[in-house]
Amino acid sequence: MAMVPTSISYVSSSQLSSIIPHPRVAIVDVRDEERIYDAHIAGSYHYPSGSFAQRMPNLLQAVGARRIPSFSTVRGPSCARMFMNYLSETKEAAGIKRVMILERGFNGWEASGKPICRCTALPCKSDHS
């Protein structure tokens, strides 16, 4: 039986920034076109909300050993719930126990002076510093 995540929690930019160096954290950007124009959180994975449902198996494979996917706000909460539902139905939950949603999303992250990246690599190869 798959291990189902136990919680979805909201985290501030400062809280997420302090745990990003932990190898078990994966940041998932679910913005669509905005990511191309507005930049993104350094080191994040891009899974646009428009195709998120179809790409959840790819996301699960991409985060691999990382156990705490973190989503941004706006579309993030619905994608986080969709991902948790997917995990509850699959046998490949990969031990994910917690899903986080970034309060104020990318805009709040950038406004608080946290590291952003403007690369076009998928996934972003930038580190979080």
Overall description:
It catalyses: [glutaredoxin]-dithiol + arsenate + glutathione + H(+) = glutathionyl-S-S-[glutaredoxin] + arsenite + H2O. GO terms for molecular function: arsenate reductase (glutaredoxin) activity; protein tyrosine phosphatase activity. Residues 21-118 form the Rhodanese domain. Keywords: Oxidoreductase. Possesses phosphatase activity towards p-nitrophenyl phosphate in vitro. It is globular, with a radius of gyration of 13 Å. The termini are far apart. It has helices at residues 13-19, 34-38, 52-63, 76-89, 105-111; strands at 7-11, 25-29, 40-41, 45-46, 68-72, 98-102, 116-117. The mean pLDDT is 83. The strands form two sheets. A five-stranded parallel sheet has the order 1-6-5-2-4, with helices on both faces. The protein is α/β, with parallel strands linked by helices and 129 residues long. It has one domain (7-117): Rhodanese-like domain (Oxidized Rhodanese, domain 1), CATH 3.40.250.
Q: Choose one word for the global shape.
A: globular
Write the CATH homologous superfamily.
Rhodanese-like domain
Unreliable stretches covering 5 or more consecutive residues: none
* Largest β-sheet summary: 5 strands, parallel
* Cα-to-Cα separation, first versus last residue: 38 Å
So, CATH architecture? 3-Layer(aba) Sandwich
Helix and strand sequence:
EHEHEEHEHEHE
Could you say what the CATH topology is called?
Answer: Oxidized Rhodanese, domain 1
